From TrEMBL:
This is AbrB/MazE/SpoVT family DNA-binding domain-containing protein. Keywords: DNA-binding. It holds the Pfam family MazE_antitoxin. Residues 1-43 form the SpoVT-AbrB domain. It comes from Methylococcus geothermalis. PROSITE patterns: SPOVT_ABRB. GO terms for molecular function: DNA binding.
Amino acid sequence: MRITSKGQVTIPAGIRRQAGLLPASEVEFEYRDGVVILRRAGGKTRGEELVSRLRGMFSACGKSTDEIMRETRGGE
């Protein structure tokens, strides 16, 4: 595997999958004892990040989840 002139490298798909790295994932690098370490930044999975961003977003409408689902399904 080669590093491009811009310092880019492709992380193999299997490693990305195991590490939970999806497009737009934030990562961080560390150099320790001659080894470069790449890890997900913040320690949260992409799903955890999404949930924390969405948490409380819809509470302003003043309806419960059940009420919203009833309306979505046609008021039944």
